[in-house]
Amino acid sequence: MSELGSLPCVKNTVSVKTITDCQGAWEGAKSAMELYEKLTAQGDHVRALKTAKAEKAEIEAAVQLLLKLKVDYKHVTGQDYKPGCPPSENCVAADNGPAADDSDDEDIVDPWNVSTKNAKGVDYDKLIVRFGSNKIDKELVDRIERLGGQKPHHYLRRGIFFSHRDVHQVLDAYEKKKSFYLYTGRGPSTQAMHVGHLVPFIFTKWLQDVFDVPLVIQMTDDEKYLWKDLTLDDCHHFAVENAKDIIACGFDVNKTFVFSDLDYMGASPEFYRNVVKAQKHVTFNQVKGIFGFTDSDCIGKISFPAIQAAPAFSNSFPQIFGTRKDVHCLVPCAIDQDPYFRMTRDVAPRIGYHKPALLHSTFFPALQGAQTKMSASNPNSSIFLTDTPKQIKNKINKHAFSGGKDTVEEHRKHGGNPEIDVSFMYLTFFLEDDEQLEKIRQDYSSGALLTGELKKILIETLQPIIAQHQERRKQITDDVVKQFMTPRPLNFKF
Ligand code: TRP
Questions:
Q1: What is the reported pLDDT for 446?
Q2: Which of 161, 447, 455, 469 has its CA 20 to 30 A from that of 282?
Q3: What is the pTM of this model?
């Protein structure tokens, strides 16, 4: 959690509770959720004792209690306790928190960090098991095709959107002629968006077109203010500028509402009411377990997840849905956002709402390799939406990690490895033609296609896509943004 370390808010102090406190708490634990909370607290307590270099006997006693709680938890839930996965989500085994005892070899995936030791990238099948979500299988893709009446998007065909929660429920509703709505978002931490940032929006636009449903897009300028060293004005400005790039993906103004939290929280009492409801029903222990917050995090961060939860409840948008609180919500997002929605799904039924359904995407790899995702703060890892054709060419030629062999002779003889080759990975995102992609894969693997040639194909694929994006973005004036960002009714068929 590198960003958390740079927080100016509170000095890093460790509070060390007494053992008797915890025992008393343990004896009072009743439900699975309470046990989960006690376990999370006890895990924190053990770590705090270790950090504070407490007496050995004291640490041992605390560990014993932790183990006892784990046995109890297994007894009550039938599952092993894993930090970051409350019992109600029914994970097989989950841990996205930073504090797992045995996580050394695991991929790290949370809203702030993505990293793996594997050159092929994060092991997404394992992630599905850890997070307790479901794989998007052929049956689901076929169903989306049947209901939407369109060939599935290549992100679905190729497993770029690979995991989901409860999408069948949304489709059931749709099948019964009940509408649903889409909700996605962006944390505007910089002016410079990169191509990876577009992935969820490109897919959301496709969903909007296919299902003809309303869409809300949350710009979390408040979140970025809380997490980064930026002023409120910076964050709000980035929200509006980023909104232009998002709108340039082609969203329909009659079906899309884009909002800045800094503006909308004050403008919509209904939205704020849902934030407060969520805040009342999630404890500090829960968010600690889910997000890894510590005693030194400012309270803004601790309560922020409720603000990302609120747009998943339809009555947060009375201008679109009136007083209806039962319109199903579907959230397309990258898998690192799942912790927010695990919390949202946990709290929803307790405050009288449907759980939102989710569609999760893989990450867009950094140019240097799939061990981490593309990041706007490292210019050499990213292709920006503002890059010129020449910059695109140079960056790919210079920095895109190659799965090819060192010499032409070796490459011709043994072939390259598309599974670790970043240029090939990018083509899976941006080259729509399945047959062409498959031919490139085969030729590269056999050695018929050289790294330089593969890179050239990528460069020539990306240059026009980005040039067209820049052209569309130019048309998005401040007036157009204002239209999208004004609370108003949308086309919504009940
Ligand atoms: N927290 C997200 C980010 O930092 C922004 C966000 C808000 C979001 N609501 C969302 C992303 C819903 C996906 C879906 O980028």
A1: 98
A2: 161
A3: 0.81
